[in-house]
């Protein structure tokens, strides 16, 4: 087993987007997601088989009093022998794979290089979305707003700290929060804005009714998204898989992508860093029994 401790140094954002697209086109089997909810925390196993990549499992929890609040462990198995190939920090991998899937969705929704990006939130997801979107779209400016930590993240990554109203004027708005009250105000969005919401399933709620009305439909990361979040309730939806296969993506006054997490993304992510670690001679061998 290869223990992969330095995930950040191994990820190639462009190649990770490609790996996620490959996983969505490949034969796969996904374990239906069931979560434990205890005293305000959410905890679930996310597992899938992806042909050509292997069997992957991630144990992930949202711990409201944790820092960071989302923590995870990812493991990759050989699908034929059962050998444990790799184990890695699933928290950082979740940040990378969620942002890479958002970048894939953004491309399908027509985002091009140079667009102004606005981010709401300053946690793990906000950081990795800033890193991936900067690498792949070379935005002319990245605004960030958060009630906490915006200044620290802006200073570390070279972002522009801004009030919420300024973020809402961006061409691409990314909501990366655990808020249970809507943070995206549809009435403030420019026409043709691309809204990306990556908050967790219920009870997280990031989009107000004006946003949903103006979007009228949504691109979603997985079939479960339509059932697990109120952010797209009542909207016509198209999955990333269908869009990659040529399905028409409905577009309203604004364009909307909603993510709640999908196990094949986790398989693609740990397969990506496992393959990169082998190529670069990185990681540490470990044996269990």
UniProtKB/TrEMBL annotation:
- Keyword Lyase recorded: yes
Q: Which EC class is this protein assigned? A: lyase
Q: Which GO terms describe its cellular component?
A: cytoplasm
What SUPFAM superfamilies does the record point to?
NAD(P)-binding Rossmann-fold domains
User: Does the record bear Lyase in its keywords?
Assistant: yes
| InterPro entries in UniProt | NAD(P)-bd_dom_sf, ODC_Mu_crystall, ODC_N
Q: Name one GO molecular function term.
A: ornithine cyclodeaminase activity
**Which keywords describe this protein according to UniProt?**
Lyase
EC assignment: the record states 4.3.1.12
Q: What is this protein called?
A: Ornithine cyclodeaminase
Lineage of producing organism:
Archaea, Thermoproteota, Thermoprotei, Thermoproteales, Thermoproteaceae
């Amino acid at each position: 087993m290869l223990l992969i401790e330095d995930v950040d140094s191994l990820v190639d954002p462009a190649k990770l987007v490609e790996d996620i697209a490959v996983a969505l086109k490949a034969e796969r089997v996904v374990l239906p997601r069931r979560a434990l909810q205890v005293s305000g925390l959410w905890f679930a196993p996310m597992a899938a088989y992806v042909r050509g990549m292997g069997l992957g499992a991630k144990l992930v929890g949202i711990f409201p009093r944790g820092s960071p609040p989302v923590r995870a462990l990812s493991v990759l198995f050989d699908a034929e022998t059962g050998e444990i190939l790799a184990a890695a920090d699933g928290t950082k991998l979740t940040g990378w794979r969620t942002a890479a899937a958002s970048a894939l969705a953004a491309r399908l929704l027509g985002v091009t290089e140079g667009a102004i990006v606005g981010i709401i939130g300053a946690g793990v997801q906000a950081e990795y979305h800033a890193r991936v979107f900067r690498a792949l779209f070379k935005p002319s400016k990245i605004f960030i707003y958060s009630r906490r930590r915006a200044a620290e993240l802006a200073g570390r990554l070279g972002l522009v700290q801004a009030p919420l109203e300024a973020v809402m004027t961006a061409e691409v708005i990314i909501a990366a929060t655990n808020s249970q009250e809507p943070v995206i105000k549809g009435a403030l969005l420019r026409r043709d804005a691309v809204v990306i919401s990556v908050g967790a399933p219920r009870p997280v709620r990031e989009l107000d009714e004006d946003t949903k009305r103006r979007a009228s439909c949504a691109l979603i990361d997985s079939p479960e998204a339509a059932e697990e979040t109120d952010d797209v309730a009542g909207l016509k939806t198209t999955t990333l898989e269908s869009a990659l296969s040529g399905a028409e993506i409905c577009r309203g006054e604004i364009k909307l992508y909603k993510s709640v997490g999908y196990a094949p993304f986790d398989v693609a992510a740990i397969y990506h860093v496992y393959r990169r670690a082998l190529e670069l001679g990185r990681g540490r061998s470990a044996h269990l029994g």
